[in-house]
């Protein structure tokens, strides 16, 4: 029988956890289904001298389910900077400490970054224990390109700041991934539809849980579907990137160049047309020299 302070159990069977080397262990935990945890994560949590939890009450459900008895300390956005120096000292003194968030992979829109930075600056070891992530779970079922994507976490809650953030991402070509709370989901989808138009998107809800579902469609269609509706749990919104702009018609930009050269110096005309049509300056400059030679 394993020691109750360094073991865990699965389906009634008890297992001992091997000792850990000193360091901070960033442990991914399930985002809904408690079975989505790795053996290595269980061993790490069971053997850690301390488990840093975003909310000890939330983490208790997982830890108690697997019989993990280790000491639990709250580490959240309001105290993580104040606690960082003490944790660095403990790791330097030989402690093995685990960091978990309420669900998923820590630091992804969750606390932990100041602590990781402090440990890195102190030259202390940090180990990733990979596992569940709402970001990746939603991305792989969205039906949108995954070869290039960008995660932007939560958008600003205020309408003006949110609109500015969406405007800044208008030309991003990669697939875009966001988290959103259920109470702001309808407003966010409406703002995305207004900013980006008929792009394909997906909204993933209750991932890994009994009522898991993924809604796919254009942004306007999804905005209409979720308008004034209530949802439970955080949503993940995945949006197609901007389409590649069509190359400007040569006749159009060359006509604009000819008109610009009529009342501007050649270099100024070239710069103006290059910026207006998004062209390479050399291409426009060569065309300007050819037009000038025809005069």
Written description of the protein model:
The protein has eleven helices and twelve strands. It is α/β, with parallel strands linked by helices and 295 residues long. Helix 10 (266-277) packs across helix 11.
Which class of secondary structure composition applies to the elements?
A: alpha/beta
Q: Biggest sheet, strands in spatial order?
A: 5-4-6-3-7
**What average pLDDT do the residues reach?**
94
Helices and strands, in order, run as EEEHEHEHEHEHEHEHEEHEHHH
Tally of helical segments: 11
Radius of gyration: 26 Å
- The end-to-end distance, rounded to whole angstroms, is 95 Å
Q: What's the number of extended β-strand segments?
A: 12
Q: Please state the overall shape, judged from the principal axes of the Cα atoms.
A: elongated
Helical residue percent? 40-55%
In the predicted model, the low-confidence regions spanning at least 5 consecutive residues are none
The biggest beta sheet is recorded as:
5 strands, parallel
Q: Kindly estimate the percentage of residues that lie in beta strands according to DSSP.
A: 15-25%
Question: What topology emerges from the helices and strands here?
Answer:
Blueprint (H helix, E strand, L loop, with lengths): L6 E4 L2 E4 L6 E5 L11 H9 L2 E4 L2 H10 L5 E4 L5 H13 L3 E5 L12 H9 L4 E4 L4 H8 L7 E6 L4 H10 L6 E6 L4 H12 L3 E6 L7 E6 H8 L8 E5 L10 H14 L2 H12 L3 H13 L2
């Amino acid at each position: 029988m394993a020691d109750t302070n360094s073991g865990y159990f699965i389906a009634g069977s008890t297992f001992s956890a091997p000792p850990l080397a000193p360091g901070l262990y960033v442990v991914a935990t399930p985002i809904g289904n408690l079975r989505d945890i790795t053996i290595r994560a269980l061993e790490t949590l069971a053997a850690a001298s301390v488990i840093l939890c975003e909310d000890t009450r939330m983490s208790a459900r997982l830890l108690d389910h697997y019989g993990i008895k280790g000491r639990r300390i709250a580490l959240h956005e309001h105290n993580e900077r104040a606690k960082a120096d003490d944790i660095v000292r403990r790791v330097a003194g030989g402690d093995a400490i685990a960091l978990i968030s309420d669900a998923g992979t820590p630091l992804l829109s969750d606390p932990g970054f100041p602590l990781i930075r402090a440990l890195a600056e102190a030259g202390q070891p940090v180990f990733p224990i990979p596992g569940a992530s709402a970001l990746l779970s939603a991305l792989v079922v969205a039906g949108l390109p995954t070869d290039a994507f960008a995660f932007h976490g939560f958008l600003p809650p205020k309408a003006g700041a949110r609109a500015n953030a969406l405007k800044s991402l208008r030309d991003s070509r990669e697939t875009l991934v966001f988290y959103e709370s259920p109470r702001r989901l309808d407003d966010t989808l409406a703002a995305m539809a207004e900013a980006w138009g008929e792009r394909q998107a997906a909204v993933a809800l209750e991932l890994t849980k009994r009522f898991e579902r993924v809604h796919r469609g254009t942004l306007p269609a999804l905005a209409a579907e979720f308008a004034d509706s209530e949802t439970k749990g955080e949503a993940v919104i995945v949006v197609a990137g901007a389409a590649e702009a069509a190359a400007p018609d040569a006749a159009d930009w060359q006509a604009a160049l000819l008109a610009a050269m009529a009342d501007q110096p050649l270099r100024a005309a070239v710069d103006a047309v290059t910026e207006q049509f998004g062209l390479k300056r050399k291409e426009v400059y060569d065309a300007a020299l050819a037009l000038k030679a025809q005069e």
